[in-house]
Design a protein that fits this description.
signal; Lipoprotein; about 240 residues; alpha+beta; elongated; 8 helices
């Protein structure tokens, strides 16, 4: 079940996050040091000496895609442009940007457009983590922010902790066998129709519960758990040492 907060966040990002958060003019944002963002539109702004800045130019961004949308640049099939041939129409890519673009640029596609997809993922994470960190991690757990792992590794490493935590989380659904990790978990952005059930060997119920408050709840998955089923809770995140 998609989190309605994320849909609202996509709209807010258009006017707020990308305008305010997306700017790194103060140079204090880790993304500013690790990634050279393509210009939104038009020619690159002049540098201190009057010469054009070396930033690649990309088409204007009308509105960031919703967190649940797939990233076409990352999933497009067919032959990819060799990394040594990946160059923007103007300017240059940083080393990290080229690493992110490796094996991701379909033949004939503007690499700056592919890069923009990853940078939009970073923008979404940056906005969500300021609004509610658990929702940001939950969006990675559920896959509503696709390509988060690669985008963070290459373009916004300050969000690596979100990806690391998400690796130990559970989205809604049924989980069994080796996928189960004993520990305490909290629900992230649950709906008012959140329920869960933990079963052991032979289908024996070990724990179950439901919540209609929309507030986070905590559960414990014991060592003896065989299956864990969640509905309407969105995602469960590890509370402390969960794996």
């Amino acid at each position: 079940m998609r989190n309605p907060f994320l849909a609202c966040a996509a709209v807010v990002l258009t006017a707020a996050a990308l305008a305010a958060c997306g700017s790194s003019a103060d140079g204090n944002d880790p993304e500013a040091a690790g990634a050279q963002r393509p210009a939104a539109s038009g020619p690159a702004a002049p540098g201190p000496s009057g010469t054009p800045a070396t930033e690649p130019t990309t088409p204007p961004t009308e509105e960031p895609s919703a967190p649940g949308a797939s990233a076409p640049a990352a999933t497009a099939e067919g032959p990819k442009t060799p990394v040594d041939e990946i160059t923007p129409a103007t300017g240059t890519f940083t080393k990290k940007q080229k690493e992110y673009l490796k094996d991701r640029v379909p033949k004939g596609m503007d690499p700056a457009a592919v890069l923009q997809t990853g940078q939009e993922t970073c923008d979404k994470l940056r906005y969500l983590v300021k609004a509610d960190r658990d929702t940001a991690v939950g969006a990675i757990v559920t896959g509503e922010i696709p390509d988060a792992k690669d985008a963070v590794a290459g373009l916004c490493t300050q969000h690596q902790a979100l990806v690391d935590e998400a690796a130990y989380g559970y989205p809604d659904g049924k989980h069994a066998g080796k996928k189960l990790r004993p520990g305490v978990y909290r629900s992230a952005s649950p709906t008012t129709d959140c329920s869960w059930q933990i079963e052991g060997a032979g289908g024996k119920e070990l724990a179950s519960g439901a919540s209609d408050t929309g507030k986070s709840r905590k559960i414990t998955i014991p060592d003896s758990a065989v299956t864990f089923t969640s509905t309407g809770c969105y995602a469960w995140l590890p509370e402390g040492a969960a794996g």
